What does this fold into?
Amino acid sequence: MDDFEAQLKELISLGFSFAHPRDAMGEVAAVVGVRVHHGVVDVVQIYGEHDADATRIPGDELDIFFPYKVFWRSSGPSAAVVAELLALPDPEPGDIPKVNGCWVPARPGRSKWLSASA
It folds into this structure.
């Protein structure tokens, strides 16, 4: 097993949920992983072996793909970005706002984050 495969398995074991958005031709455009935990949302978007980005945002952000506030961000080669994401410590209780929202199915193969008002 290569290192990147092991990293992906670790993301799964941590509770990341994955979606595979497709382009107009039906080809997978990215692999998108999302994990909601400790009042934050971690998002990783993998476009190819050498192209990925990841963010950690507050759980109360309205749009996790275009957030207003970002605690951490990285982009670059996929294995390096995922390694950085895996190395992030969990936030301390009380440091970060409560997560308000959930993932819901939008159409086959797609999900959408719905933010809930407090």
